[in-house]
Design brief:
By secondary structure, the chain is mostly helical. It has a domain at about 395-470. Helix content is about 65%, strand content about 0%. It is built from 25 helices and five strands. The protein has helices at about 5, 10-40, 50-65, 85-100, 105-110, 110-125, 135-145, 150-155, 160-165, 175, 180-195, 205-220, 225-240, 245-270, 270-280, 290-295, 300-310, 315-325, 340-360, 360-370, 375-385, 395-405, 415-425, 440-450, 455-465; strands at about 70, 85, 410, 430, 470. The strands form two sheets. A three-stranded parallel beta sheet has the order 4-3-5, with helices on one face. A two-stranded antiparallel sheet has the order 1-2.
Length: about 475
Amino acid sequence: MNKHCFSHPLSVLFFLTFVVALLRLFPYFYILRLEHRDGVVLPLLVSYLPTDFYSYLAFIRQAAEEGLFFFYNPFTTEPQQGVFILTFFFILGKISALFSISCRDVFEISRLPLLLALTYTLWRFLNLFQWNNKEKFWAIVLILFSGGIEGPVQLFTANETFVKNIWQFYGWNSFAAFFNPLWIFATILLLIVLRYTLPDAGPVTWKQKIVLAASFTLLHFSHSYSSLIALCLIAVSVLFSFSLRKFLHLLYALCLPLAIILYASAWQIADEIYRLSASHFFGTQNITLFWYPIGLGLLLFLAVKGSLMNPSKVILVWIFPVIFLHHSDIVNGYKFLFYLHIPVVILATPYFLHLLQNFSRLSYFLIFPLLFNAPVFQTIEGIQEIKSREYISPAIYAEIKKLQTIPKANIIAPTPVDTMIPAFTPHNVFCGHWFLTPGYQEKGKLYSYLVDHPQERVAIMKEFGIAYLLFFK
């Protein structure tokens, strides 16, 4: 690598980050091209995981159009107070309203500024390891671009178990995780929290304590899984350090945030709809070590060798709780997998640089293709996934546009329209997102029953307080 890179490393990293953002935005650009070609004025397509992204947009829309901070769950029709606090979506909603940009476009575009902020945060965070600019530069390059070998392996197998466990949207690598702006935002805050909690001294100054307190609070009310990871890492770091001074520093910094979170949680849990939705936090879906050789690939070998060269207590404190949690079959451990890549990269960086310095040709012709193939395969996969669902019936566009003009009501609709309605209109749906609809499996059967039994529709819809049934031939 040219020495100029290390005289202005952040500038080069920002450029590389811009490239990563463009790659993750390719499916969104493809959507814009489709909409321009077809003359679509109602943006219904999203770039990745429609079910989840529509639920995000449903909350962003509440902040943008209704001015809400305490969100209600629009994927159910039962009475509720509206106690969901999701600060990242609130911020995006306010930006959408301020600049008159659609909620979808604000959400999709947010990847670029968030990734630039993440790169800067990583640069500051890596000072914990007293690395020089070259070491920090390559660590961030690995975080941005490195991955496993699932892409090449998938060329030779379509095994269902393999595909299920190596799914890129679990976040096996950071590039894969960047599909979700919420995860990027959470990672930024998590790094800030860890910067002041993992070192032996903990947060020393009042400025550090205030930044830690604010970051942890914002993290919890944006992405509770990340705050749980942060708490686990904080607890393990205190046990590892055996420092009463560090414990007291952390206690001073976190007592108010924890009190706020406990009070808010008690208030939220008192609402039955929130309580039922939050119960989906528990489950038996996990990811095991068995998939590491494929999901992490060569990076796993580099991390093992790097940990032997330069063992880091800070990273061990980070990595062991993450491994434990993503193996959990109590709290749906797969949701914690995307926290694994960054600490693995930090462990791998010293040995990677050793290979780069001593075996440059080997590095460029063998190591680089094995390490940096993920962006290629995952970008192609993202485009292909969009193509598989790019067609939306004109009847759906017409119906949702009509729903935007009528008074708020309860609606029952077929999949995937049931998830689109709350994202683009103020209406609640009887059954929508699997995580947010209490009794999703049972409720999902009612639509088919109403379609097949027209003579019973009026009575059943009245019983459940449903005003409209959308039916598409």
